[in-house]
Amino acid sequence: MPAVGFAAFAGAFIVFRLRGVRQAELYGMTTVVAAMLDFALGAYALVGNQAAAAAAAVATTGLLAVKGVLHEWVQKLSWRELRASLILLAMVFILLPILPDREIEPLGVNPYDLWLLTILIAAVSFVGYVAIKVMGERYGLLLAAVAGGLASSTAATLHFARLAKTVANRKRSLSGAALLANLVMYGRVAVLVGLFSPAMLVEIGPPLALGALATGAVAAVLLQRDFQAMDRDAQEMVLKNPFEFGMVLRFGVLLAVVFILAAWLKREFGQTGIYVLSAISGILDVDAITLTLARSGGPMLGILIAVAMNTLAKAGIGMVAGGRTVAALLSVGAAAGIAGIAAGLWLVETL
Known about the structure:
By secondary structure, the chain is mainly α. The chain has two domains: 2-65; 88-350, no CATH class. Helices cover 84% and strands 0% of the residues. Helix 5 runs antiparallel to helix 6 (111-135) and helix 6 packs across helix 7 (140-166). It is globular, with a radius of gyration of 25 Å.
C-alpha cells in the first residue's frame, strides 16, 4: 500500500515539477528532496513513531526556512575551507584509529591521546575561523573580536594592533577589541580544564573568572567611547586555516614537546620546573601547557602562570605591531587581568 501511495504521489509531483521547470526554469534539487522526505515522514507517522516524525518535519521546515542564509554562508567558504573539513574527517576517522593507544617509552607520550588533543584544539580554532569567514564585516568589531579570540587570540591581537596603526583615531576601540579577544582566551582555558580535570576547574575557576572580568572591564571602557564607530573598524581579519596540515602538525609537535618536557622537568626539578616551562610555553601558546597540566593533574598555578605570560606577550605584540599607545592600553588590560588572577588565587586560598 505505501508503494502505491508513493507512486501516485511521485506521478503527481513529477507533472507539476516539470511544469515549474519549463515555466520558471527552477532546476534545484531542494524541492524534490523535501517532497520525498515529506512523504516518507507522513508514512512513518502512520506506521511508526509519530513524535519522531513530527520532530523531523519541524527540523526540515526550519532548514528550508533558512535555506537562503545557508546558501549565503556556503558561498563565503572557499575550497580551502571545504578541504579543511575533509582533512578533519580524515584525521578523525582514518588516522586516529590506526595510532597506538598506549604510552611510547621512554618518552611517555600516548600517540592516540596526543593526536586527539591536537584535533580538538584545531576544531575549536576552526569554529572561530569559519565564524570570521561567514560574518565578514557585517557584524562589526565586537563579534569579530570574539570569533577571532576563539580562533587565535594572539592572531587577533596582532590584527587589531596593525589596524590601529593605520586607523590612528581608533586606537582605543581596536585595543579594546584585542583585549576582548584575550578575554575569550580565559574562557577557552576554562573549557579545556573542565573537559580533562573537573576537580581542577573548581579551583582555577575563580582566578580565571576574575581575570576575565577585569580584562573585560578595561575592554568595555575602551570600546564604550567609540561604540558608534565599531562597524567601520571591522575590517576582514586575515587568519590561517587551523586545519592546514602544516599548522596542525606544528601544534602537534609543540604539544608533544610540552608533554615530554613537563614529565622530565617535574621528575628532575619538581613543581619549580613545571612553573618555568609554563612561563616559557605560555609566551607562545596557552593551550599546550593547559592540556598537559589538566590531563596529568599538574599544578593549577602552572596554567595561571602561562595565562599571565601570554597576556603580557600580547602587550609586547601591541608595541611591535601597533606602537606605544596600543602597547600602553594593552598593558593596562594585561595588568588588570593579572591582578584579577591574583585576587582569585587569594580567594581560593582564603576560603
